[in-house]
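In this supplementary section we document a worked example of the pipeline. Step one takes a protein sequence of length 80 as its only input; no multiple sequence alignment statistics are reported here. Step two produces a three-dimensional model, which step three serialises into structure tokens for compact storage. The input and output of this example are shown verbatim.
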Amino acid sequence: MRKFPDPTEQELSEGPQAVAFQIANGNRRQNCILQTNLPTKMQAQRYLLANWPIVEKMARDALALGKVENGEIRLVMPPM
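The serialised model returned by step three reads:
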């Protein structure tokens, strides 16, 4: 398994990273943001890809409940 790079100074000052993605909503795309507790963008992106079925279900459930704020669905990473 590859070792993640150390967080940059900017990432350390920003704190936990978020990653943006889109899901299909009919013939439109819905913007989503997943807030993680991970220190680097690369780790956040890898988390999203590794847990895509869970994150996609969370986003679709939020969409069905109408939890869209300013055109975005905001999700929080489940505890590990």
